[in-house]
Batch of 3 targets.
Target 1
Amino acid sequence: EAQVTQNPRYLITVTGKKLTVTCSQNMNHEYMSWYRQDPGLGLRQIYYSMNVEVTDKGDVPEGYKVSRKEKRNFPLILESPSPNQTSLYFCASSFEGVWDEQFFGPGTRLTVL
Amino acid sequence: RKEVEQDPGPFNVPEGATVAFNCTYSNSASQSFFWYRQDCRKEPKLLMSVYSSGNEDGRFTAQLNRASQYISLLIRDSKLSDSATYLCVVNKGGGSEKLVFGKGTKLTVNP
């Protein structure tokens, strides 16, 4: 089944404890991206990647890192999480970047205490 | 002006009603336009791409007005299952590979 998977789906952590949210797609998509969704603010792009080893900042990259060592994986790293990073995170992928349908993962609900 | 702006609603309509959503975008260089649907705190899913000539998919019709920089979504004969939040999505344009999502318009279809 063609899909985007994210892990973990739910995470409660404490300020400053490094964490990684994994994202993997099995559709051989070139483009992958991370979003956060907050009430009243909608979905905002954190980082995106056009291809392996090519990443770029979205609108809200502060406090996040990403890597794209393999085509299928695009992990989101929070080196020192803070409470303002409490949010619902979505990973997405597409074949032709912004010209194409974005396939979203099921989301990761992160709470930073 | 915000990059992408939608009426947040909520829209409450009876079954069978016709409802229309509008979305305005600020960058005239934007070239790709979409409507996504999101059920409560689930992942967004593509409803329709929006083409310059307009396009229709069953009960759903999408239109693009480049001169006024807005896109619209028309839902005819609303069903209970259409209840969701509808997201307008636009690329930033100018060669950017970034997407901008509107905050969404919430629709509730009542029996």
Target 2
Amino acid sequence: DAKTTQPPSMDCAEGRAANLPCNHSTISGNEYVYWYRQIHSQGPQYIIHGLKNNETNEMASLIITEDRKSSTLILPHATLRDTAVYYCIVRVAYNFNKFYFGSGTKLNVKP
Amino acid sequence: EAGVAQSPRYKIIEKRQSVAFWCNPISGHATLYWYQQILGQGPKLLIQFQNNGVVDDSQLPKDRFSAERLKGVDSTLKIQPAKLEDSAVYLCASSPGRGGVKFYEQYFGPGTRLTVT
């Protein structure tokens, strides 16, 4: 069911930017891309979402390619507290706006 | 603003026993979700409520799982009888489900970790 593909794990040095890629090649025109993260033993936490324009908030930036088949989540200055599993999700409008979670990317931020 | 509350946080039962989980969503949120998260996997939606009506329960194993949302607020998820493969974290989430840019944004509780032995 998952409509996204992400690398299983990535490493990032503390203080550097973390760039997490996501492939969603079958996305439809009215389907949004959401990013959530899950820190160990907690529920997933909302980060950002977008349709086709790039988005930025206090946590991160979301870059969506022009063809919308892929996106990148950017954490500009990663800290140790950003170590988590990051999920790229497509919200499917025709199916009750269901969230399809993949297996996510485990981001390891190292000192 | 209080978050989504779930209880218990942990539960250990033997196979064939029954178990129930409780969820209290964020006040005013119309939509409530129950997810199952098996170790190493992303959450999988089991059931979605809009107010007190079921919108989608296509992934709910109805021979053993049941859920209700009385008065469109709190919800309970029950498993009877439990199997070994039901060992997982059960997450509850809610979303406003009406007006505004956060219409579909889901807020998750801490989850209940179920171990079936």
Target 3
Amino acid sequence: EVQLLESGGGLVQPGGSLRLSCAASGFTFTSYAMNWVRQAPGKGLEWVSTISSGGGSTSYADSVRGRFSVSRDNSRNTLFLQMSSLRAEDTAVYYCAKDLLPFVRTSSFGSWGQGTLVAVSS
Amino acid sequence: DIVMTQSPDSLAVSLGERATINCKSSQSLLYNSNNKNHLAWYQQKSGQPPKLLIYWASTRESGVPDRFSGSGSGTDFTLSISSLQAEDVAVYYCQQYYSIPPVFGQGTRLEIK
């Protein structure tokens, strides 16, 4: 069974930093691109970032480019999102999501974690 | 960026009746190289993460009840629930994965009438 467990969320002041983690199990982590998707309170879904299966290719939403950095440790089956220069509008539940198909990046989201809440406020 | 527009924003349907949600993209999602529409549907129940229902516009994800079906091609797509059950109350999102950035529709809230 695919399991994705996010951690690292919390309350942070504007301008601050936070590092999210997503521990993956139940599938061959090294075969899948991985994604972060966020959802502001009461709002819809917004794609944040994708990293290829090997980690060599990344992409970001315009709203976070230059402030967020995605990475992965394939030896530990873990995905990361380093967030800096945080703003109030970054407040959201951040979901880790496994790509739908192995070996190719589709940017469709086959499995999701439960999410971790990031709140940016003074 | 591709814009995804769902209609209606909310919908109330009686138990056992058919529910239909529409999704329109600002450009075609049909990829010539594989002749597939890069369109997915997700269900999000209250307090839960989204769940993939349909991909390639009409392929049902494993374990999804067959009362859920997806149709359409190009720029116009539909999610249908043939006989609404109480557990289908949720917000439904379409999402294009034809190009980066992947974009979701604004969501359609489905309730019981």
